[in-house]
Structure formats: structure tokens, C-alpha cells
């Protein structure tokens, strides 16, 4: 049994619209990766969500700039003017309102992408440091670490109870199964 056809129109329910967007975006990205690998094609996909978040894929064998340059050469369409490549103060003053808005949005997207990447890297580093810290605290073979933390008592026996800030008491799930003394 095949899937039913749906009418292609805007989804009014915002939650359903977001789910559909996410699924279809992932599907497009998957297809882009597959055609890139299977056919050795140069593929570049850029999707902007209604929230302004950008999702992109570019074949590993190329860059977005190379794909856009090739598009420009083969189609003859101008994607951007040379004055937009590296605008200076005086160049910006010649832009009209729409061009300034596009430039501002591109800068905001760039900043948010950089912040997200920075947060991702900080989180990854934090996880690595926490893992290393746990390794240092849990390695019972490293006597130097154990001694420096005062884990051993005066007889050289490890005092693990001193490390435990609290204790657990196991209780049966069913009160009628408890032993009576």
C-alpha cells in the first residue's frame, strides 16, 4: 500500500509545520549526500528556516564558493556584485535599504552560527575535562592521587566511606514482603 497524496499548501498548525519542515529538511539533506557520493556530483544545499536558522550541505569535494562561481559562469546570472564581497565603510554607505537589510541578516546569521559553534566546542571541551577528572578520581591504581586526596587512613587502607557524602538504603518495593523481626 502506497502513501496517500497530500495537498501542497501551507500547514497552519505551527507544531505540525515544524515537524514537517524538520523531516523534509533531513530528507533533502540525505538525498543531497547520496547523490554526491553515488554520482560524484558537486552538490550544495542551503535551507533557511522561517526562524532564520540556516542548514547547509556541500559536497566534500568542493566548497560553496566554488559551486556558486560555477553557477555564475554557466548560467550567466549575477549572484552578487564585487562591491558586496568585502564592503568597507564607504562601500556600505552606497547600499540601499534592502541591500543593508540583507547584509545585516547575513552578519546576524554569521554571528549566531559562530556563537553556536563556539558553544558546541565549549560543551565538548567541558565533557572531555569532566571525563578526565572522573578518570583521575576513579583510578584506584594511582596511589599518588589517592594519597593526595587523603583517601587512605593512617594504616594505608583505603577509606572509601569518607568519600561518600550520603548513603542509600534499599527498601523492598512491596511493604508486605518485608522481614519482620
TrEMBL record:
<dbReference type="Pfam" id="PF00319">
    <property type="entry name" value="SRF-TF"/>
</dbReference>
<keyword id="KW-0539">Nucleus</keyword>
<protein>
    <submittedName>
        <fullName>Floral homeotic protein GLOBOSA</fullName>
    </submittedName>
</protein>
<dbReference type="InterPro" id="IPR002100">
    <property type="entry name" value="TF_MADSbox"/>
</dbReference>
<dbReference type="InterPro" id="IPR033896">
    <property type="entry name" value="MEF2-like_N"/>
</dbReference>
<keyword id="KW-0238">DNA-binding</keyword>
<dbReference type="GO" id="GO:0003700">
    <property type="term" value="F:DNA-binding transcription factor activity"/>
</dbReference>
<feature type="domain" description="MADS-box">
    <location>
        <begin position="1"/>
        <end position="61"/>
    </location>
</feature>
<dbReference type="Pfam" id="PF01486">
    <property type="entry name" value="K-box"/>
</dbReference>
<dbReference type="InterPro" id="IPR050142">
    <property type="entry name" value="MADS-box/MEF2_TF"/>
</dbReference>
<dbReference type="GO" id="GO:0046983">
    <property type="term" value="F:protein dimerization activity"/>
</dbReference>
<keyword id="KW-0804">Transcription</keyword>
<dbReference type="GO" id="GO:0045944">
    <property type="term" value="P:positive regulation of transcription by RNA polymerase II"/>
</dbReference>
<keyword id="KW-0805">Transcription regulation</keyword>
<dbReference type="InterPro" id="IPR036879">
    <property type="entry name" value="TF_MADSbox_sf"/>
</dbReference>
<dbReference type="InterPro" id="IPR002487">
    <property type="entry name" value="TF_Kbox"/>
</dbReference>
<dbReference type="GO" id="GO:0000977">
    <property type="term" value="F:RNA polymerase II transcription regulatory region sequence-specific DNA binding"/>
</dbReference>
<dbReference type="GO" id="GO:0005634">
    <property type="term" value="C:nucleus"/>
</dbReference>
Amino acid at each position: 500500500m502506497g502513501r496517500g497524496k497530500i495537498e501542497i499548501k501551507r500547514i497552519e498548525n505551527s507544531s505540525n509545520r515544524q515537524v514537517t519542515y524538520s523531516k523534509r529538511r533531513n530528507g533533502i539533506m540525505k538525498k543531497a549526500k547520496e547523490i554526491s557520493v553515488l554520482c560524484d556530483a558537486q552538490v550544495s544545499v542551503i535551507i533557511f528556516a522561517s526562524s532564520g536558522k540556516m542548514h547547509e550541505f556541500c559536497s566534500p569535494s568542493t566548497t560553496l564558493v566554488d559551486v556558486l562561481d560555477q553557477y555564475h559562469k554557466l548560467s550567466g546570472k549575477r549572484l552578487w556584485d564585487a562591491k558586496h564581497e568585502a564592503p568597507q565603510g564607504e562601500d556600505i554607505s552606497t547600499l540601499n535599504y534592502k541591500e543593508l537589510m540583507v547584509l545585516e541578516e547575513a552578519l546576524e546569521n554569521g554571528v549566531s552560527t559562530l556563537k553556536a559553534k563556539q558553544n558546541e566546542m565549549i560543551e565538548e571541551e567541558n565533557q572531555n575535562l569532566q571525563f578526565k577528572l572522573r578518570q583521575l578520581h576513579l583510578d584506584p591504581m594511582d596511589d599518588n592521587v589517592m594519597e593526595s586526596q587523603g583517601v587512605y587512613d593512617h594504616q594505608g587502607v583505603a577509606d572509601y566511606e569518607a568519600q561518600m557524602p550520603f548513603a542509600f538504603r534499599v527498601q523492598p518495593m512491596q511493604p508486605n514482603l518485608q522481614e519482620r523481626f
